[in-house]
Design a protein that fits this description.
Protein name: Flagellar secretion chaperone FliS
Number of strands: 0
GO biological process, one term: bacterial-type flagellum-dependent cell motility
Strand content: under 5%
CATH architecture: Up-down Bundle
Largest sheet: none
Distance between the termini: 53 Å
Keywords: Bacterial flagellum biogenesis, Cell projection, Chaperone, Cilium, Cytoplasm, Flagellum
Organism: Pseudogulbenkiania subflava DSM 22618
Structural class: mainly alpha
Order of helices and strands: HHHHH
Pfam families: FliS
CATH topology: Four Helix Bundle (Hemerythrin (Met), subunit A)
Length: 143
Amino acid sequence: MGINRQLQQFQRAYQDDVLQTKVLGASPVELIVLLYEGAIEALEQAQKAIGDGNIPLKGKMVNKASDIIEGLRAALDFERGGDLSPRLNELYVFANQQISLGHITNDASVLQQVIDLLRELLSGWQQLARDESARRGQGIPHA
């Protein structure tokens, strides 16, 4: 086994351990942040795969992003979510439709539109995570 392959395996194992540590210590809001980051990363990898002509990798990454978004959609709480849950539901449905379009047409720009949408939503969740963390630091219980 070559040194590069060994280093790649070590890096993957390290990343898996880091992710597992983040997930185990995360609040629900922080988990949502991690999921958004994962979907964005998968779509960026799919874009690169389109550019490289790597169709199998593109398919894998598009499916990963779509699965994450569908998981976020399935986790919506329509009883407690007020007006936000139906709006997020519509955005998630739209995002998955666009991902499918980008996948079918090999159009990285369509995937970029989804990345931009997810980054916009991510910034809101990151702010919630910061606010939650600040409340915990001050000993204020969750709302």
